[in-house]
Structures are given as structure tokens and as C-alpha cells.
Specification:
The protein is 24% helix and 26% strand. The chain is of the alpha/beta class. Strands 2-1-3-6-4-5 form a six-stranded mixed sheet, with helices on both faces. The chain has a six-stranded mixed beta barrel with strand order 7-11-8-10-9-12.
């Protein structure tokens, strides 16, 4: 299965905007949802491509640009992420997923149900719409997700509190996969261990990720400011490009969230141990993301600083263990064995041997 997913509207076409200071900006939030949902889909093994329109200056051009991009992709389903608006209110409004074809409806039903079950947003159901350019002009089954209302304070509060669950629910609803957030385990032993080739990722110079790309389980600068640059690099909005690549040891591997939940990995309670096979050096590193993709043939992505301090380069081998094992207590040095032998001759001569040292003399 392969999914083509785009954020509604564009860089210069913001869409709906809620009231300041708490209301949502539709396009800005749609980009965040698309990026995080794509990360979740990758982790489920589902192929996904994403798009943000950063060029269009008017609505008609924006709609054509998005649909044209979708129709150029090889995919099974088209997904557009939006946010709704209908008058400022404190009351809950809810989530709906729009469709036009029966094939689209088969995706809309599980997606809206998953979002609302995971978040607590009011379920407005799958809704058939026949007048939307995106649904009418994409040439594969399509859905348009109205995540919540930008001007409902109740919806906005839920959205902020349940952002991770909403994105996981979109991913699981579309793909038919299940990715529940498991309970926190107690980690006395290694919960993750793998070895193989590595590469680097993150920071302002990592053009392999988009300027807006987020991280798998850290959703804001304030959650872990110790991992990030104080200022967002120019021309970027995502946390992946804000990582302090040359100042922090961090690591990404293909975590098993059933053993190491996202909340655990995002906390400051545990670090991973990364050992370089070539140099024998080992250092602690903070979990920062999920990856790399299996297609790379690598098992870990490290911060450039960590690679430098380990004395390795791309495609050198590492071992990653999480949580880092406690250093074993040093074994006590054995007490020296003591041996003594005393001989007294009949003439009063004394010969003493103590740990191999012989001392002779006359007995008093």
C-alpha cells in the first residue's frame, strides 16, 4: 500500500485561522499533522509520500497544484489534511472525514472513528461531499480529513493534548494497521539492542529531511530544549532541522514501541549506549527519532557530534543498547595470600620465611 498525503491550502494560502491567541492556523497545523502521520506510517511499514504547496498565491492555483501533485504519484489512496471553521465557540465541534466515492468512504469510516476514539473529539462521521475540487479531481480513492475546528477552544485543547494520538489514529485508520500506545514498561534490562551500519541525521545541514519535518516522539522545542538549537534555523520550521547536531549526542533507531514507548524515549530518564565496533569507543546518547528506513541497510542514525566523538563515519558499524546498562561495580582486588614458616634449630638458630622472604637469626 502507498499513500499520497498533502497539507490543505499552502504557505501563502493559510486557510481557516482561529482567534488569537489560542486559535489554530489551518495550514500550519495541517503540515504538522501530515509530517507526523507520515512518520507513523513509515514505522508501520506503509509507504507514504507528502506534499506542501509553497508556491501558489491564489486559491485556484493552490487547488490545481495540490491535485496535480497527487495525480503524478504512484499510490493507492489520496489524503488531504485540513481543519474546519464555523464560528468561535467554547463548545466542542468535532472531527469529520469527507469523501465522494464509495472507495473513499471505505477509508473515511475507519479513519474518523479511529481519530475520535483516540482523542475524544466529537465524531461527526464520514460525510459525502460532491463539490470539493480535491475529491472530484484526484484519480484515486480520496479522503479529506477535517481534523477539528480552529475556532473551538474545546477542540483546540484536545488537539494540543492528543496530537500524537490523533496522528497515530490517522495512520492506523488509513492503513488498517494498529499502533496503540502501550503501557510504560519497567526497564531493568536492555529493552532494545541492535548492531549494524550507521549514518548521521538532523540539524540545519541535513537536507535529506524537509525543512518542516518533525520527530517521531518529541513534538515541541519546550519538551526537550536540551536537544535543540535555541533559534530555529532560517528557512525551516521542523524540529529535525533544529536538532543541535554539533552539540548533542543523540540517536535514532527503529524502536519497538511495545517495549520502549514514545513517552519513555522522549523523557530525560534514560539514555542509550552507542558503541563503535571499529574504534571500541562507547558513549551515551539521547533517543531523538525513529529510523532509518529499512531500505537504507542501516540500523541507526547518529548526531554528527556523536559520530565524530566515536571516531567513525557513515556505514561504519555500531551497537546500540537501550537503556544504557549500568556500569558494573568494580570487583574487589583479592587479598594477598600470606604464608609464614618458622624453623628453630637445636642450636638456637631461627629461620623465618614470610611470603617467600627468608630472614635468619639467633634465637634469644
Amino acid at each position: 500500500m502507498k499513500i499520497a498525503m498533502s497539507s490543505g491550502h499552502g504557505k501563502y494560502i493559510s486557510g481557516a485561522v482561529g482567534p488569537s491567541p489560542w486559535g489554530l492556523n489551518e495550514h500550519a497545523e495541517a503540515v504538522k499533522v501530515v509530517n507526523q502521520t507520515a512518520t507513523d506510517l513509515h514505522e508501520m511499514g506503509v509507504g507514504v509520500v507528502t506534499f506542501e504547496d509553497t508556491t501558489s498565491r491564489d486559491q485556484n492555483t493552490n487547488l490545481r497544484t495540490i491535485v496535480d501533485w497527487h495525480n503524478r504519484q504512484t499510490r493507492d489512496i489520496d489524503v488531504s489534511v485540513h481543519f474546519n471553521s464555523n464560528g468561535t465557540t467554547d463548545a466542542p465541534r468535532g472531527c469529520m472525514v469527507l469523501y465522494v466515492s464509495e472507495a473513499g468512504k471505505s477509508y473515511a469510516i475507519p479513519t474518523v472513528n479511529a481519530i475520535c476514539a483516540a482523542s475524544g473529539l466529537k465524531n461527526l462521521g464520514p460525510v459525502k461531499r460532491t463539490n470539493l475540487y480535491f475529491l472530484n479531481n484526484t484519480n484515486k480513492p480520496a479522503i479529506l480529513i477535517e481534523t477539528c475546528f480552529v475556532n473551538s477552544s474545546a477542540d483546540v485543547d484536545i488537539y494540543h493534548a492528543k496530537f500524537a494520538q490523533i496522528c497515530e489514529a490517522i495512520a492506523s485508520g488509513i492503513s488498517g494497521s494498529s499502533a496503540p500506545i502501550p503501557p510504560e514498561p519497567t526497564p531493568p534490562e536492555a529493552l532494545f539492542s541492535d548492531s549494524g551500519k550507521c549514518s548521521w541525521f538532523g540539524g540545519p545541514n541535513d537536507t535529506g529531511v524537509s525543512p518542516s519535518e518533525g520527530l517521531a516522539f518529541i513534538y515541541s522545542y519546550d519538551a526537550r530544549p536540551d536537544l535543540f538549537l535555541v533559534q530555529q534555523p532560517p528557512g525551516t520550521t521542523g524540529l529535525a532541522r533544529r536538532l543541535n547536531a554539533d552539540g548533542v549526542h543523540y540517536v535514532a533507531v527503529r524502536w519497538d514501541y511495545n517495549r520502549t514507548p514514545k513517552t519513555m524515549l522522549a523523557s530525560k530518564d534514560q539514555q542509550a549506549l552507542v558503541r563503535a565496533t571499529k574504534t571500541g569507543r562507547e558513549l551515551l546518547a539521547w533517543p531523538a527519532d525513529w529510523g532509518p528506513h529499512t531500505d537504507t541497510g542501516r540500523i541507526a542514525d547518529l548526531s554528527p557530534l556523536l559520530m565524530s566523538d566515536l571516531g567513525i563515519k557513515t556505514d561504519d558499524e555500531v551497537v546500540v543498547i537501550y537503556p544504557a546498562p549500568d556500569e558494573p561495580a568494580p570487583e574487589p582486588e583479592p587479598e594477598p595470600e600470606t604464608s609464614a614458616e618458622v624453623n628453630i634449630t637445636t642450636k638456637g638458630h631461627v629461620k623465618v620465611t614470610l611470603n617467600g622472604v627468608i630472614v635468619e637469626g639467633e634465637a634469644p
